[in-house]
What does this fold into?
Amino acid sequence: MAEPAISVRGVSKRFRLYHERPTSLKERFLRFRRTRAEDFWALRDVTHDIEEGRTLGLLGPNGSGKTTLLKIIGGILRPTEGEVVTRGRIAALLELGAGFHPELTGRENVYLNASILGLSRRETDRYFDDIVGFAELEDFIDNQVKYYSSGMFVRLGFAVAVHVDPQILLVDEVLAVGDEAFQRKCIARVRQFQREGRTIVFVTHAPQLVHQVCDQALMLERGRVKVAGDVAEVIKRFRLTMLQRHAAFARENVTGDITIEDVDLLDHTGKPVSVVSPGEPLSVQVEVAGHRALDDPHVSIAVFNANEEFIYGTSTRRLGVELGRFQGRRRVTFELKQLPITEGQYLVTVGVHDADKTVVHDWHDMRYAFDVVRYLEEGLFIPTEVRVDPL
Amino acid sequence: MSAEVQVRTNEPPRLRVASRLGELWRSREVLVNLSRKELKVRYKSSVLGVLWSMLNPVLYLAIFSLVFVVFLRGGIPKYPIYLLSGLLPWTLFSTGFQGATTSVTGNAQLVPKIAFPREVLPMAAIGAQTVNFFFQFAVLAAFMLILFGLSFVGPSLLLLPAALAVLLVFVLALGFATSSLNVRYRDTGHLVDLLLLAWFWSTPIVYPAGEVAERMGDTGFFLYLLNPLANVVLAFQRALYGAALPGALAPGVHPPADLSWYWMRLGVVAAASLALLYLAWRLFFRMSGDFAEEL
It folds into this structure.
């Protein structure tokens, strides 16, 4: 009977937050018995088994304990309570190129980093060309790493890490690096790991990625397991939690002097839409109501992709439109004349605020969604016309 | 694939020497690579490169020769050879000790991100200095061959590898202790610098131990030799300088004793250093579980 590859049993982790931690002996003596420490429980009673060959996506808002859990599984941090049992060689990708030294060349760093991650010299020799090829750094491998761009740096870091041949791979947010082509390559590599039957734990903010890659998911909130198991179910709960958080934030911090009454996404004929094609227009129609007279408020919109990454934003201020002294109702329509974006789900944020956004009157964060249907493989849509002239 | 099972709980890790040695043996390439990194990084983009590691002893040699031979008219024949045979192990000790002390804090980007046996950090710092030592030693050996031919080659030379081994055990023991303490209290490093200054003058490097033995009497000299490093340095001097200039042994340069006395002293220090190493390693191992958190 197969034991789970990773078994997390009742794990809690406490961090001591020292207000003024004595880091010298002098302070230690002067403040003897007077250091004030506050306990912060980064994890509370987390229990979860991961069978060999499965891929777990670890979701959660910032500060929910995802990275801490990963570090405990990876043996970098000790649990305060409970225990973790792992079976098999572990590679933890917590930060790409963490061991790189800027003064050394790419080649020297590959050997150093690979050995720290547990690869022997002979193995590194064997994989070296693969590593360099994967990172696409053939021409720069003998340059000092300090001359690398940040993209080159993380590519090399990832390339080394995926060649370590672990039975258990722990990945923290690192797939969000690099350009899209490189990301696709990384995901392909992760899929290869999956086919080879390795166990993977994946920390991310991006539910989309969990959906693409993982076969089970776990969501942490404030250090506790909120929900675990089926990917779709966990993602749903995660999105809901994030929405509630945004809403809570908005409720606490907006003045309410002007409120957003209604928002519609419309096509060029003025009909509400939820699906558009690349290159088509889209209007964001915002109805606002001012409850007392205010000078010069502004309306802004922002578009995010499904990973909640900011794509585009604009405002009445940027577009040079004044609402003047404002009270009563207005309809503000932003006409996005062509959407230069491709397949995927997009979220729209709408806000009303003063000229420099220090006062927010109302804020609807990623509350409106539309889909762009598949067009071509390109990363963006560029409106193009073609013409043939007789010579 | 044989699965290596690891269990992690809140118990501070307990050192089991045999299995831990096995783990360290598997990490030997990390050790070699980290030592190499230390050396490479130090001499990267410098014109003189590894020659810099020679300049420090050369400067000492010039200054102390000036002071002791010219100003004070000290009576040690072939003073440069005497000085170097004690100064080189001292340099290995002091630079290794300092390097090891800051080895964990100096790798603060690495430790919280990657799990690997933390012991390799102080070990690599000392390893790098050992490589430097061999470079310096090669120069001294060449000097001696030119000056004395092969006359100093003999049984006393066997003291040399033994003394080096004891020195490495001793400095590693200190390094384990100070590198882990330095994570919590950053002034450990400053303390070490200060300590080394006093230590240098408590060790017979620039002045002869024979004189100390003469002036302080038996009890005094016994206390003087409680300094483990004095015994190690004496063994180095006996193996090199003493063998090359047997005539110089008598007039108070070396303690009046035969070879077996040096072996005996070295054996005592070796036993004490091993005990210290065990304790320091346990301390290091215990504290290393929290390095990632405290850096």
